[in-house]
Each structure stands twice: as C-alpha cells, then as structure tokens.
Amino acid sequence: AKRRKMMNTSSMSSETSTPTTTSGNNIRTGRHLLLCRRWMVGLCTTPRDGRVYHSENLVLTASSSGPPIVRFRGDRVEGTLPSEEGSMLTPLLRHVSDCATESKKGTPLISISAEALMEDRGLVIGSEVPLSLSVSIEDPVQFFALFSSGII
C-alpha cells in the first residue's frame, strides 16, 4: 500500500501571512501596496550607442502637464513606456492625496519603478528595451475612493 505524505501546512501559513516575505504571495513592499508587476517593452529614444544592463534600475518620470508620457532613464539609455501605459499611469501620478494626515497629504497616490530585464548594447532610437514595471499604491484608501466616487 502506498503512503500519502502529509503536507506541512504550518510552514505554508506562516510564509503567506507575513507581509514582508519575498515569496510570490507578497503584496506589500515596505509601506506600499503592490498593485502590479508587469513585463513590457519600452522604446529607446537614445540617438545612438545606448546600453542597458541586466537588472539596472531605471528612473521613471511622468509629464506634469500636457500629453500623458512616462519616460525612463538609465545610465546610458533613455526612452518611453508604451502610450497605453502612459495614458493609464500619468493621471494617477498627477493626482495627489488629499488625506487629512499631514504625512500623506500632497503625495502621489501611486509610485512606479522599473528595472531592465536583460543586457543590451548598441541601442538606437526605436530599439525595444525589455523591462519590469512595478506599480505600488501609496495611499490605498484614497486610491480606491477615486473609483468608488466616479472620478476615474
């Protein structure tokens, strides 16, 4: 007769209940609530000889007015995120919290970060730059209130 091995559930529950673990079930990163992490391709705007390194942190900036564009910059590369993501992220980055708590008042509702997924050399204008984009919610109450109040 075959014996069934019992799964140790006590170790599983302790891993998933701790919000600071690095497992795939982690939804909190420090004080931020991770909304999504997505692989995507940004477009290089570096005129010539651009370069990106594996796991290089990319600085992201959004336009404060005008068209909804999200730009990224590394040590030797610059570019933009696809227009669909820029259209979605820019209004959320422009919207600041009106929370009564002084420490959170005036801060953006979300934060974004990115890192390169692979090393690539010789990047020119229009080259694709694979990256991992993370979107975190800074103020969950204010963020979800936008959707329930019909503002967005």
List keywords for this structure.
34% strand; disordered N terminus; two-stranded antiparallel ribbon; alpha+beta; 152 residues
Produce the secondary structure layout:
Blueprint: H1 9-17, E1 28-29, E2 32-44, E3 50-52, E4 57-62, E5 70-73, E6 78-80, H2 83-94, E7 110-116, E8 120-123, E9 128-137, H3 140-148
Antiparallel strand pairs: 1-2, 2-6, 2-9, 3-8, 4-5, 4-7, 5-6, 7-9
Nutshell version of this structure?
With 152 residues, the protein is an alpha+beta fold. Helix content is 20%, strand content 34%.
- Rg: 20 Å
Strand percentage, roughly? 25-35%
- Quaternary state of the chains: single chain
User: What's the arrangement of strands in the largest beta sheet?
Assistant: 2-6-5-4-7-9
Number of strands: 9
Supply the helix-strand structural class.
alpha+beta
The N- and C-terminal alpha carbons lie at a distance of 60 Å
3D structure, described in words:
The protein has three helices and nine strands; from the N terminus they run αββββββαβββα. With 152 residues, it is an alpha+beta fold.
